[in-house]
Amino acid sequence: MTDTASGSARSRAKGGKATADKAAKGLRVERIHTTPGTHPYDEVVWERRDVVMTNWRDGSVNFEQRGVEFPDFWSVNAVNIVTSKYFRGAVGTPQRENSLKQLIDRVVKTYREAGEKYGYFASPADAEIFEHELAYALLHQVFSFNSPVWFNVGTKQPQQVSACFILSVEDSMESILGWYKEEGMIFKGGSGAGLNLSRIRSSKELLSSGGNASGPVSFMRGADASAGTIKSGGATRRAAKMVVLDVDHPDVEAFIETKVKEEEKIRALRDAGFDMDLGGDDITSVQYQNANNSVRVNDTFMKAYENGEKFGLRGRLTNEVIEEVDARALFRKLAEAAWACADPGIQYDDTINHWHTSPESGRITASNPCSEYMHLDNSSCNLASLNLMKFLRDDDQGHQTFEAERFAKVVELVITAMDISICFADFPTQKIGETTRAFRQLGIGYANLGALLMATGHAYDSDGGRALAGAITSLMTGTSYKRSAELAAVVGAYDGYARNADAHQRVMKQHSDANAVARRMDDLDTPVWAAATESWQDVLRLGEKNGFRNAQASVLAPTGTIGLMMDCDTTGVEPDLALVKFKKLVGGGSMQIVNNTVPKALKRLGYQPEQVEAIVAHIAEHGNVVDAPGLKPAHYEVFDCAMGDRAISPMGHVRMMAAAQPFLSGAISKTVNMPESATVEEIEEIYYEGWKLGLKALAIYRDNCKVGQPLSAKKKDDAAATATAATEAPAAAVEKVIEYRPVRKRLPKGRPGITTSFTVGGAEGYMTANSYPDDGLGEVFLKMSKQGSTLAGMMDAFSIAVSVGLQYGVPLETYVSKFTNMRFEPAGLTDDPDVRMAQSIVDYIFRRLALDFLPFETRSALGIHSAEERQRHLDTGSYEPEGEDVDVEGLAQSAPRQLSAPQAATAKADPAPAPKQAHNSTELLEIQQGLNADAPLCFSCGTKMRRAGSCYVCEGCGSTSGCS
User: At the top level of its lineage, which domain of life is listed (predicted)?
Assistant: First the structure.
């Protein structure tokens, strides 16, 4: 890394001098939000906050920093994520950043200095306006750079600004081993990479020695193992990678089936009692789990599919057809595999390269892991995303407008900053650095589209919604290329432009033509289309004169962590997840709220304040709009979300992607969610329609298709529907169901026990806890009030239920975690020195049982300590006893009893139930809908993540499973 970094620095200095010398004059920077003579920081109210982030599963503190400074309008979640993820310096030292001012200054001042150094600004005054406008936009959450900028810019470490990388590999062992190394270095830095393996000869071709080649699928094993090892070596997320194979590669069928076979292996191991859940101890034995796979199809194959024709698979060395296959049968296998395990996705090669601005320098063969960045091999892209809700203006009469002019000015500002960053950026390999500096690929995008559409009264799956999304995307990309042409006049076109000028101009004309024929729908999108049309006219005029500074301008990324930083309700191009959200409160605690966009939508649709209030109350209670008082059924679709009873149809997602795609340089990170009942034919149709509608890439996810995803807890109303779905499933995906039943272990006639008298809030009672002679708690009896009373009867019933559960193998710590902190009367002071306060009778009972029967480590993780341990913590800072004080024999006797083999298998195989207490919006939706989301648990804080494009993001701490 040191040699690469120094080499990059030398190359950067050389390139920087050339562009600076070429500059004839700099940019004049226009004010958008700021006031002359006043710094943006002086226009907001600042306050100090304490950030303490815990793992809710075990109560441990993941991160703590007190007294951080943020504007008063920043949410708790945004403050937590920025403080824990982006502040630099060791926690607890003077070097640690403690204010948003320091973070923004570190980045913005670096950009200004580089802009001045490389000749971007006409004067120091323009540089100052640039700095202030950039700081304002970041401070007010108008946009955000991608995470590597916040991690690295302005620090002493390499100034890596890119989140997306594309590598290449040739048909040689030296290149393949180089691929392993380059990918590993990118993973080590927390980023992801993609590549196409189609240059590697197939297993059906010969080596020069006469033997058969290994084939790309074989080499994928080594790369997958490397990615898994690097993850387990300290990263808090799985490695993000994309592997692509062309549809005409002779090993394409083996590539399609790789994950299907591994999924069958997972099921077999799960049924044998192994822990095969996401993050489970035994999942690492399964291969190919660290990558997204995609098949790259071309128009020749898709037309053969349409016509039911044969399609030739070609040798890599000679390009001759070595085997012919039925195109429809191969496409069917692709859909069957996606049905069974969500992989592979599909990429449309001819469409991708039809929109390629630099074809003379090489074809586009691959994408980054989330599929939005598609350009030359050995290149990278730095991202930034705008918060669309910041440009929606409501006047006093309820009239809404999208501020197209201000949006365009912010786009110009952001594109300028993104291009400046390439001047000082470092890159993980020399080849990537050279290509990126030569083509200067940028990836501006947006977040909060779903919220914007709902707030403006547009259904996500509607012509009006698609028109507004298309208009905004067109204006964004047109303005970006306009500014790119203006930058070319100041600091020069990208190095590869002269060779690709005709192709670049052709693609600009394609964008402009698509803008001209796009459908205008209403008073919101029509002015935006007009502004976009004007920008594309400027692009064609200025591009012809100046060329372009950037080969690529725009993509639609997942916006996971940065979306949370900007307090966005929705990520990227996604619709809203649900109408009711989980919100953290200043000072601790949380609450469920109806999305702020709902009242805006109702107002836009013409409802009166009292009607809005009644509808919002209905949503708060039921989680949906069905049968809401006064709401017209015709307006239900405006409030459709990604999940729930009124979920948006899969084709609704595809049509939205098609509305935005013609106006993007790159592609769209998005997974099309499908219900568990979806058939192979429906997936086949979606992959086909994606091609017909002009998408560049597409991936689907059928609910519950993966073993690692907890199965739906929602009861099926029609058993016949399940049987039908099973009939329609491909034979390869049918599994043998093995049912294990727990065995009850009764206590012996003579049993040791403890009887405890207690008082909670003035209410007296007795608890008798009996245990197995050497194997933990097995029985509880509770005595309160007079025999025959309602309370006594309920306590008897509760005791029997808990006792039977213990004897069937339910761990005591499960009961403790569920019943502690339950609040109801009587509550208050107790007469137990170890449990001085109790929120209810059951809260006290299970705290007492934890102290009597659980090992120290187990109950400490649950936050339950004796009076002696709490005093020790005050004296020494630790709850743990000294070595000589540990009661080893007592710990052994109080350990939870081991399950018999069939019970152990059941404990691992059974799906986890939907949570009873929500810790974020995803879990809240699970409780409301009675189902489990298809997201993994966050490695950092243990909460359920939610989808962000084709990746996942944790609302609790901001961790992502891919680009951000």
Answer: Bacteria
The average pLDDT across 832-856 equals 87
Q: What residues form DSSP beta bridges with 447?
A: 387
366 occurs within a structural domain: no
586/589 Cα distance (integer angstroms): 8
Task: Write out the residue range of the structural domain in which residue 794 sits.
Answer: 753-898
Beta strands 671-674 and 697-702, pairing class: parallel
CA dist 558 and 541 (Å) reads 33
Q: What DSSP string runs through 400-429?
A: EEE-HHHHHHHHHHHHHHHHHHHHH-B-SS
The single residue of 183, 262, 372, 779 carrying the catalytic annotation is 372
Q: First and final CA of the chain: distance in angstroms?
A: 23
Q: Which of 14-28, 294-308, 369-383 has the lowest mean pLDDT?
A: 14-28
Active site residue 370: yes
Whether residue 684 lies in the annotated active site: no
The active-site residue out of 77, 152, 290, 368 is 368
**Residue from 370, 641, 705, 963 carrying the catalytic annotation:** 370
User: What is residue 567's predicted lDDT score, i.e. its pLDDT?
Assistant: 92
Task: Quote the number of domains for the chain.
Answer: 1
Q: Is residue 857 part of a domain?
A: yes
- Name the range with the highest mean pLDDT among 92-96, 495-499, 944-948: 495-499
Does residue 813 lie within any of the structural domains? yes
Q: Is 813 exposed, middle or buried (0-12, 13-18, 19+ CB in 10 A)?
A: buried
Please, which contacts does 494-498 make with residues 24 or more away whose CB atoms are closer than 8 Å? 494/438, 494/439, 494/440, 494/547, 494/548, 494/549, 494/550, 494/551, 495/437, 495/438, 495/439, 496/358, 496/361, 496/438, 496/439, 496/551, 497/547, 497/548, 497/551, 498/547
Give kind and range of the element (H or E) at residue 78.
helix 76-85
CB atoms within 10 A of CB 537: 14
How far, in Å, are 73, 144, 250, 447, 720 from residue 385 at the CA level?
20, 6, 40, 6, 46
pLDDT of residue 737: 41
| pLDDT at position 303 | 98
Catalytic residue list contains 813: no
pTM strictly above 0.85: no
In this structure, the strands spanning 192-196 and 241-246 are parallel
Model confidence pLDDT, tens digit, residues 767-809: 888 888 776 888 898 888 776 788 888 888 888 899 888 888 8
Q: Which amino acid is at 885?
A: D
Q: Tokens 């009607």 label which residue?
A: 611
* One-letter amino acid of 294: S
